[in-house]
Design brief:
By secondary structure, this protein is of the alpha+beta class. The protein folds into four domains: about 70 residues, no CATH class; about 110 residues, no CATH class; about 40 residues, no CATH class; about 130 residues, Trna Endonuclease, Chain: A, domain 1. About 35% of the residues lie in helices and about 25% in strands. The strands form five sheets. A six-stranded mixed beta sheet has the order 13-14-15-16-18-17, with helices on both faces. Strands 1-6-5-12 form a four-stranded mixed beta sheet. A three-stranded antiparallel beta sheet has the order 2-4-3, covered by helices on one side. Helix 9 links the parallel strand 15 and strand 16.
Amino acid sequence: MDHIELIEEADLNISNDKLSELQALSLYHDPRFEFEWPNPGNDFHYRLRSKGWVGHFPVGGTVIIVRPKAPVASIFAMLEVAYNLKSFNILEGETAVESLEEIYERIASILAKRVNDRFRKGLYRGYIEKSEDLEFVRGRVDIRGNIRNALLTAPRLHCRYEELTADLEENAILLWALYLVARMGLTRDDVKRQVRQAYRRLIGAVSLVPKSARDCMYRFYHRLNHDYKPMHGLCRFVIEHAGPGTNIGSHEFLPFSLDMAKLFEEFVAEWLAEKLPEKLKVDPQFHVRLNANADLSFRIDLVLRDRMSGQALAVIDVKYKMAAQPSEGDIQQVVAYAVELGVSRAHLVYPFPLERSVEAKIGNVKVSTIGIDLNHAFSATWDTLALAITPSDQYA
């Protein structure tokens, strides 16, 4: 397939012969891109810009490849934190990884290896209740079912029993993720082999059922399946970032994409949850319904709270964009959040060092900016993020 390559959040001029009208219309309506039609201001070229998305985006017979502006090592580090993958040591030995494609290959390899290891130890199994007409008694005899059979002159006993099986949602999530990974156009032969082996081992014991990213979250784990938690984190990553299938010759592959703004927000939330003092916690994606004569609400990225009382202490707005300093709109937005929640502290977090940090007071709300240097995967500013956000009188 033809491809067009650009850098995340950087303009690219595309000559008229590179895109058909249908492809141009598709990009114009795609919310992940800013698209400008040919005009005198752009020298009669199409102008394309990604809104923080990176990865592969099929458009007709062309794939738009968007490269990240942040170093790949930093993306790996954020993935470790945001998806709770630190137990995999995902960065170990991978400092030479330089592309998004290699990130996905690495994720696929880790997932397949872990599934193969778990299969050798034995898949997690549990009891499920089954109801069936049998020639012999098994479990409990279902009186109502047997009355129905007698009326139908069916010479069988209707029984309810429990069966120990590996066909559980815990394993179905793994199988669905492997199914998606196998269609992502892997290039490394060793990874392809690992994924095929893991898939074939599961498909014999587990039903292939579509799963969502939410199915991978908020699950209950115990001593018999605790190692599934990080594997489900990998599955969530695969499921969230696999796009719709697109044909290449006689094959179909799944393109992948990564919402860097969402990843950065999730990274900040998880990092704070890990680094904040025990008495504090953060609530991500907090919704506040406004007191209005219409259905209006605020979606606040993060709210800092006292763990014991639940009292809101500060609001945190995460902005994935480069800026010399925060815009007036950014400040107005975070102040509105603070006023609505009745807190006096508001923070704006950016993914790059600001040329000028801002400390401002608007009414009773004190606004401060924090820049995290993504150009250094383990920058000291990451460690000071929690300290900068924590109220000085509450840090312990």
